[in-house]
TrEMBL record:
Name of the protein this chain belongs to: S1/P1 Nuclease
Coiled-coil ranges (or none): none
The entry's keywords: Disulfide bond, Endonuclease, Glycoprotein, Hydrolase, Metal-binding, Nuclease
InterPro entries given in the database record: PLipase_C/P1_nuclease_dom_sf, S1/P1nuclease
Example GO biological process: DNA catabolic process
SUPFAM superfamilies: Phospholipase C/P1 nuclease (SSF48537)
Pfam families in alphabetical order: S1-P1_nuclease (PF02265)
Source organism of this protein record: Polaribacter aquimarinus
Length: 260
């Protein structure tokens, strides 16, 4: 009996280990967004970014904001990766996190990059953060409910293995396709100039409210404990690709507005 109890506790611990730590677009997702953004930069913007990043690409630096989370001195930026919003709220009417959120984080990055008095070190840091945050904004579970940590505590299965709703959208669907970030970027939809301009319209807050409408649909797309397989990927991976592409196109718009 004692052995069975220990086994049960161990199983519960390892099956839920992904539930307590919020996840974000996986590396391939962020890199694909950065790669797509590169295709929409003006020559002047590209030159300015190349100088700040010392030749590193947007794809390469796109995971920086996740990498620094292991260092406690950067804890103050943790809440900048997401927004907690109830279904019946817009960003304007939602209760704000006193530590800041995606919107305040993005605005801070933009203000530092626009300030001619900012140091080169600060410009590099906040440019890397901005690339990541625009990507996070377009992952629908980053604008989720506070009570389930943006879907992190909604346990489901992915092809029979324990995971959570947030991770399904963050990594599982992307990993299932087994494509590099370059393949994901190169296979983004061909869009007309008019379609690109339509995507780039709006403010950061308006983009948040737009993604939040998608967030509501994602919550309704599963039942707790459901085993998600090919059908779920077939139905929603196109949405993941669209969000990665929108993130890249809008990231380029933000960067062009700053530097061009």
């Amino acid at each position: 009996m004692k052995i069975k109890f220990i086994f049960l506790i161990s199983f519960l611990f390892f099956s839920n280990i992904t539930l307590e730590k919020p996840m974000f677009w996986g590396k391939n997702g962020h890199r694909a967004t950065g790669e797509i953004a590169e295709k929409h930069l003006t020559k002047k913007t590209r030159k300015c970014i190349d100088k700040i990043l010392k030749g590193q690409s947007l794809a390469f630096v796109s995971t920086f904001a996740d990498e620094i989370k292991s260092d406690k001195k950067f804890n103050k930026y943790y809440s900048w990766h997401y927004i907690n919003m109830d279904f019946d709220k817009t960003y304007a009417t939602s209760k704000k996190n006193p530590q800041g959120d995606l919107v305040t984080g993005i605005k801070k990055c933009i203000s530092v990059l626009k300030d001619k008095k900012s140091s080169e070190e600060d410009k590099e840091f906040f440019l890397k953060m901005l690339v990541h945050f625009i990507g996070d904004l377009h992952q629908p579970m980053h604008i989720g409910r506070r009570e389930d940590k943006g879907g992190n505590t909604i346990q489901v299965q992915w092809f029979g293995k324990g995971t959570n709703l947030h991770r399904v959208w963050d990594e599982n669907m992307i990993e299932e396709w087994d494509m590099s970030y370059i393949e994901l970027a190169d296979n983004a939809k061909d869009l007309s100039k008019k379609q690109i301009q339509a995507i780039q319209k709006g403010t950061i807050v308006e983009w948040v409210d737009e993604v939040h409408e998608l967030t509501k649909k994602v919550y309704k797309s599963v039942k707790v404990g459901e085993n998600l397989r090919y059908r779920y990927s077939y139905k929603y991976f196109g949405t993941v690709r669209t969000q990665l592409q929108k993130g890249g196109i809008r990231l380029a718009k933000v960067l062009n507005d700053i530097f061009d």
